[in-house]
Specification:
The protein has 233 residues and is an alpha+beta fold. Strand 4 and strand 5 form a beta hairpin. Helix 8 packs antiparallel against helix 9. The relative contact order is 0.08.
């Protein structure tokens, strides 16, 4: 038992301080789960670990100024939440980072295939929305999905008009994408509702990408009507 205990403690020590981990991050026989749970609880009581929620802990960073344990950094909280929900951060918080709104979000939005009710995690208010594409499993696709999410939310991004958002996305993102990136965006757009495909098609047409515009326009029924409040140049 002593050697098993030592092995688990060594595994924990190899995890970076501040990184949230769960039982899945440790290697041990299935029949030892209860033993590991007791050990983690014990380390929490000693202050070696900090319990985030049931089954989730982190090793606190120690202040060099003698101020005790430092809190989990927000990016690590984000990593843990998105991993837990199998999603990615989107919504107003991200739109502010993208320069689409000056308003600072008080709620963190996670796009996930299986949305759950709004909840609070530590100091964060978390809400879930439907992820239209599973392409977020490849992290390289997330920046493009966030652009498409902004297109989807064009009517609801705070502090900006629909026309403003249309122009900003077109000028800041679509005009800056390479042909390869635009092809990727068109592929991802096909997972989104027709309204998003219509807006993307309009942007592609305005930046001279008629072939890609026709490709995405071909996925929209000709009889579909949209209530869009922006004017093309």
């Amino acid at each position: 038992m002593a050697s098993f205990r030592r092995e688990i403690l060594q595994q924990i020590e190899r995890i970076d301080t501040g990184r949230i981990f769960t039982f899945r991050d440790l290697s041990f026989p299935n029949d030892k789960l209860a033993n590991v749970a007791v050990l983690l609880s014990e380390q929490n009581k000693k202050g070696v670990l900090v319990r985030v929620e049931k089954g989730a802990y982190f090793r606190p960073r120690k202040s060099a100024l003698g101020l005790g344990s430092l809190p989990v950094y927000q990016d690590e909280q984000f990593r843990y939440i998105t991993q837990k929900l199998d999603g990615y951060i989107t919504g107003a918080y991200i739109y502010n980072k993208m320069g689409l709104t000056e308003q600072v979000a008080t709620t963190i939005t996670v796009a996930t295939p299986k949305p759950v009710r709004r909840f609070r995690f530590k100091n964060l208010d978390i809400e879930c929305v439907k992820a239209y594409s599973m392409a977020h499993l490849n992290e390289n696709n997330i920046p493009y999905l966030r652009v498409l999410d902004a297109v989807k939310d064009i009517k609801h991004i705070p502090g900006s008009t629909e026309q403003d958002i249309y122009e900003r996305i077109k000028n800041q993102y679509f005009k800056g994408f390479s042909t390869t990136e635009l092809i990727k965006v068109v592929s991802l757009t096909k997972d989104y509702p027709p309204r998003v495909r219509k807006i993307v098609a309009d942007m592609l047409g305005e930046i001279g990408q008629q072939d890609l515009q026709r490709e995405i326009s071909g996925t929209i029924l000709s009889t579909t009507r949209f209530n869009l409040n922006y004017k093309m140049a």
